[in-house]
Design goal:
TIM Barrel, 9 helices, alpha/beta, nine-stranded parallel β-sheet
Length: about 270
Amino acid sequence: MKPRPARRQQWLTLLLLCLPAFVCATETGSPAGRSPVIALIIDDLGTQVTKGMRAINLPGPVAMSFLPGGEHTVELAKLAHDNKKEVMLHLPMQALGQQAHHRHSGELMADMPQPEFLDTLSRNIAAIPHVSGINNHRGSLLTSTSSYMAWLMQALNAHGELFFIDSRTTAETVAADMAQAYGIPNASRNVFLDNEPTPQAIRKQFRELVERARRDGSALAIGHPHPATLKVLREELPRLEEQGLQLVPVAQLIARQKERKLAWQGYSSR
């Protein structure tokens, strides 16, 4: 049955209304525009040389995030920088239910007065050569508390050009919202690759990462230097280009997401 004239007019009107949104999406990283992008962070580096070197040798701009108290953090961070990898601080933060005597080296704790909190943060940043960004290690207590995240973001704002990645260790996190409020370049983790560190589970999570990037234009994953994780990534990363995706540094993903958000805000304000 052919559409009635009135129905055809309704469809034409709907098409014309949707066309600007389609053009905007095309310009901001949808499948109809530039290639979708993904970024990857490998956490918990600095304690073991072999695992650290294997992570650094992954193909492409995979970011390396180092614990501030790691025995080999300084040498591995310098090596990562020499190999064109982004270097990040994997900042320990207190988790829910965690007692003070279980703290990591350099951990930010809820019982710290603000001067101690800020001094600990400054020493952690200084401990990582070539640091360009931060993501939280654990931290379900602190990242869900606005006052502590305000201290953190104020300090980062004063420190310079560091970005912040919310590892999202709790659904109650306010870290990304506070980063946005204080003007800190930021993004949030979309996928954990290896909560279950088996090849089958990691491949499944990697597929989820790819699908999120295709759907949203970009996606960010966090993994760890487990043998299975590094093996899967060595196999999967070289295949991204043929799948129409691009692996980019974390800073570039943040810039892409900001550009996309501004484009949509501009369209919605018309």
